[in-house]
Design a protein that fits this description.
The chain has helices at residues 2-26, 67-72, 78-87, 164-170, 175-184, 395-410; strands at 45-46, 49-50, 55-60, 102-111, 114-123, 128-133, 141-146, 150-159, 199-209, 212-226, 229-238, 241-245, 265-268, 271-275, 282-285, 288-291, 297-299, 304-312, 316-322, 327-337, 345-346, 351-355, 365-372, 375-377. By secondary structure, the protein is an alpha+beta fold. Helices cover 18% and strands 38% of the residues. The chain contains 6 helices and 24 strands. The two termini are 65 Å apart. It has 3 domains: 45-146, Roll (Nuclear Transport Factor 2, Chain: A); 150-245, Nuclear Transport Factor 2, Chain: A; 265-377, Glucose Permease (Domain IIA), CATH 2.70.70.10. Strands 13, 16, 17, 18, 19, 20, 21, 22, 23 and 24 form a 10-stranded antiparallel beta sheet that branches. Strands 3-4-5-6-7 form a 5-stranded antiparallel beta sheet, with no helix packed on it. A 5-stranded antiparallel beta sheet has the order 8-9-10-11-12, sandwiched between helices. Residues 16-34 have low confidence and may be disordered. The radius of gyration is 35 Å and the shape is elongated. Strand 14 (271-275) and strand 15 form a beta hairpin. It binds zinc ion. Zinc ion binds at residues 268, 285, 287, 289, 367.
Length: 416
């Protein structure tokens, strides 16, 4: 009984000591935050001109206004205006003004209730402006200048639910951003085939002039998740040219085969006027005909998606591959198709069909077309953008620099 009592005392004492310790440990010194007040003397300026000492008049160009008539209202004489127009040239026209554009007058004197302009600034655009300086009465100084453009770094992310456009709208991202993304990822992402659950994360810049947004800058880096794969755009500069690469340093662009088959000769070149072999009249031939033995395999000229695989009266059995939003290639007169169907992804070199003579054809050949933005261009003169990987000499630097972008992009939160 006595022993039990001692135990209870001991437990209580230990508990009290523990409690005191916890309270002591948790008691922190109150944090004294020092207030740092930075005093920056900001000189109020407009167009890089200190405002002090000036009376400022601002207005916009109205209907019927000419530079001369506006300047007259601010004490600039007809002779001075004449002098200004003489200073103009084709490349340096300083008299053209547009309705609604703002102008600013810096004046320090008023004569007969007319403010006398010493400096006149006309805003050609939200970025460019023309400064007419009359402070020296003997010479008018005219300068075409640009305002400072501030770059703001931003990030965007989204999960495709219905369409990319819908995701962009839902997140209040601009159409310019969607356009910039479609250009940066044109060669790797099939924007026509995005599926619900695919997603993207991008870092980009927006441009501001005097706190006013003037547009989008660049996509800096990003990743698209499509078809179970992360398709990266990692920027890297070589020989002072910046391009995008995947995470191992391959170009995001894809090469095209010079010819999509082993051919014996070119039987007809790209021409806007040729004698048609069957119809015996002059028609255009916006393609190249490669002669080759029957059933010679025909390869996909580059990675892409099969968008057409059918029979046409003139084309015979033919296939079209969409490589990105810019390029599509078309292959005609097959004897039979390869194993790929409409909607299938193909890689460069995959067999999509076999040479034949179906449709309007006089012998086994491949009629090959390259479409660039819907226009049939000369496949033999076609120079797709370069698709070189990072130069092996620069690879160590690439792998070092890529971490910065990959980490930053990965850190962008994806709201599901
Ligand atoms: Zn042809």
């Amino acid at each position: 009984m006595k022993k039990k009592f001692i135990y209870i005392i001991a437990i209580v004492v230990i508990a009290v000591i523990a409690l005191v310790l916890i309270v002591v440990i948790n008691k922190k010194e109150p944090v004294v935050k020092e207030k740092v007040v930075e005093v920056v003397e900001e000189i109020p300026m407009k167009y890089n001109i200190p405002l002090e000492g000036w009376t400022i008049y601002t207005d916009t160009v109205r209907k019927g206004d000419f530079l001369g008539t506006i300047m007259n209202r601010y004490g600039i004489t007809a002779q001075q205006v004449d002098q200004i127009s003489k200073m103009s040239s084709d490349t340096f026209n300083v008299t053209l003004i547009n309705l609604g554009r703002p102008f600013t007058v810096f004046s320090d004197t008023i004569i007969d209730s007319i403010p006398q302009a010493k400096i006149f600034v006309y805003e050609n655009s939200s970025v460019r402006y023309t400064k007419y300086d009359f402070t020296n009465p003997d010479t008018i100084l005219i300068e075409k200048l640009e305002k400072q453009i501030d770059t703001v770094e931003l990030e965007a992310a989204g999960v495709i639910e219905f369409s990319l456009l819908q995701t962009m709208l839902d997140n209040d991202y601009s159409w310019e951003l969607a356009l910039a993304m479609s250009q940066t990822f044109a060669w790797t992402v099939d924007f026509y085939a995005l599926q619900p659950g695919d997603w993207f994360k991008v870092m980009y810049t927006e441009l501001y002039v005097e706190d006013k947004r003037i547009g989008i800058g660049d996509i800096q880096a990003g990743v698209f998740y499509q078809g179970g794969k992360e398709l990266w755009a990692v920027p890297f500069t070589e020989d002072s040219v910046q391009s995008f690469f995947d995470t191992v340093g391959n170009s995001m662009r894809k090469t095209f085969l010079l010819a999509p088959l082993e051919y014996t000769n070119i039987s007809s070149r790209y021409s806007h006027a040729r004698m048609h072999p069957i119809f015996h009249k002059v028609t255009e031939h916006l393609a190249v005909d490669f002669s080759a033995p029957m059933v010679t395999p025909v390869y996909a000229a580059s990675d892409g998606t099969i968008v057409t695989r059918t029979y046409g009266e003139g084309a015979g059995y033919y296939v079209a591959i969409r490589h990105n939003s810019v390029y599509t290639t078309v292959y005609m007169h097959f004897s039979r198709f390869g194993q790929y169907n409409v909607g299938d992804r193909v890689n460069q070199g995959d067999i999509i069909g076999y040479v034949g003579s179906t449709g309007w054809s006089t012998g086994p050949h491949l009629h090959y077309e390259v479409h660039e933005n819907g226009q049939k261009i000369d496949p033999l003169a076609f120079e797709p953008p370069p698709a070189d990987p990072v130069d092996s000499i620069n690879l160590p630097r690439f792998h070092e620099e890529k971490r910065y972008w990959i980490d930053k992009v990965n850190a962008i939160e994806l709201k599901k």
